[in-house]
């Protein structure tokens, strides 16, 4: 792996600086992302859209940004992304609950030479968890006596259930194990940032894989990393492309 002599970081993780960022959505995640940007001290937030200033979300204002980061709601995510496309501003989308429209949105971005990174989860740990589940499922598929059971826990304000992350994990496992319907239990408990649990269970034993997010900072830092990565690209990507995970 090639290292930069000063930073001691792999070249592909060297960060851009001085980007102008539009934040679309200023709830729990929008605020965590703003904090991450302030702490890193490399970029500037030039537009901040909350439910109180929706009139400011215009093509003209978006054009002032190098990149937009969108964390709003299942209902508004697609509309907001298409507005970024119209403004020719690359967008990082973390909103969940709109995956049913993903293929249409992807086509729209590809046909119009737009740039987008989507992830149901921008935590580096979760994306490694995806890869671990992919490997586990490739092993368990040869042993059909194991059934797969999933559960996820989030805070009580989360609007979609099951979580986008749980749906992503389920799809990864189903690429290997298609013989059973994998159930996902979705629990909502106050102040839980996000827990995902995958159980491979037989009559004689079980293997359990768990990821627990302790704070929103992991998602926020991942979203800013994705913004730096997508700023000078065209196309539709996932976070694993940013991280270089196969
Ligand atoms: N990909 C990831 O890593 C990741 C991590 C955490 C969360 N998420 C997802 O990101 C989204 C936001 O999560 P959150 O925890 O920040 O939720 P939140 O605290 O409810 O924040 C969402 C904010 O967006 C506002 N909003 C709604 N419609 C809008 C619009 N059209 N334009 C601009 N703002 C709008 C909401 O206002 P009101 O409250 O007034 O409706 C709210 O302030 C959810 O879909 C969540 O599942 C993704």
Give your account of this protein's structure.
The structure is a single chain. By secondary structure, this protein is α/β, with parallel strands linked by helices. The protein folds into two domains: about 10-120 and about 215-245, Rossmann fold (3-Layer(aba) Sandwich), CATH 3.40.50.720; about 125-215, Dihydrodipicolinate Reductase, domain 2. Helices cover about 35% and strands about 20% of the residues. The chain is built from eight helices and ten strands. The protein has a six-stranded parallel sheet with strand order 2-1-3-4-5-10, with helices on both faces. A four-stranded mixed sheet has the order 7-6-8-9, with helices on one face. Helix 1 (about 30-40) crosses helix 7 (about 215-230) and helix 5 (about 125-140) packs parallel to helix 6. The longest helix has 17 residues, at about 125-140. The two termini are about 15 Å apart. Residues about 1-10 have low confidence and may be disordered. Bound molecules: NADP nicotinamide-adenine-dinucleotide phosphate. NADP nicotinamide-adenine-dinucleotide phosphate binds near residues 24, 120, 122, 158 and 219.
Concise overview:
The protein is built from eight helices and ten strands. The chain has helices at residues 28-40, 59-62, 77-86, 102-111, 124-140, 164-174, 217-230, 239-243, and strands spanning 20-24, 44-49, 67-70, 91-93, 115-118, 147-154, 184-188, 194-201, 206-213, 235-238.
């Amino acid at each position: 792996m090639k290292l930069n002599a000063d930073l001691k970081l792999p070249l592909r993780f060297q960060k851009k600086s001085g980007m102008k960022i539009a934040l679309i959505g200023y709830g729990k995640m929008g605020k965590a992302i703003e904090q991450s940007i302030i702490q890193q001290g490399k970029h500037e937030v030039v537009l901040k859209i909350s439910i109180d200033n929706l009139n400011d979300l215009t093509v003209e204002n978006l054009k002032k940004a190098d990149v937009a980061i969108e964390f709003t709601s299942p209902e508004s995510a697609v509309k907001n992304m298409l507005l970024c496309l119209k403004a020719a501003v690359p967008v990082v989308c973390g909103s969940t609950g709109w995956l049913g429209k993903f293929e249409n949105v992807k086509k729209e971005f590809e046909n119009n030479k737009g740039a987008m990174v989507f992830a149901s989860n921008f935590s580096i740990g979760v994306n490694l968890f995806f890869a671990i589940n992919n490997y586990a499922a490739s092993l368990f598929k040869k042993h059909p006596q194991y059934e797969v059971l999933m559960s996820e826990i989030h805070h009580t304000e989360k609007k979609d259930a099951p979580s986008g992350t749980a749906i992503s994990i389920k799809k990864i496992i189903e690429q290997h194990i298609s013989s059973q319907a994998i159930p996902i239990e979705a629990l909502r408990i106050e102040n839980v940032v996000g827990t995902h649990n995958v159980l491979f269970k037989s009559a004689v034993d079980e293997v359990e894989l768990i990821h627990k997010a302790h704070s929103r900072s992991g998602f926020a830092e991942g979203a800013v990393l994705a913004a730096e990565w997508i700023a000078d690209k065209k196309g539709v990507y996932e976070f694993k492309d940013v991280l270089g995970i196969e």
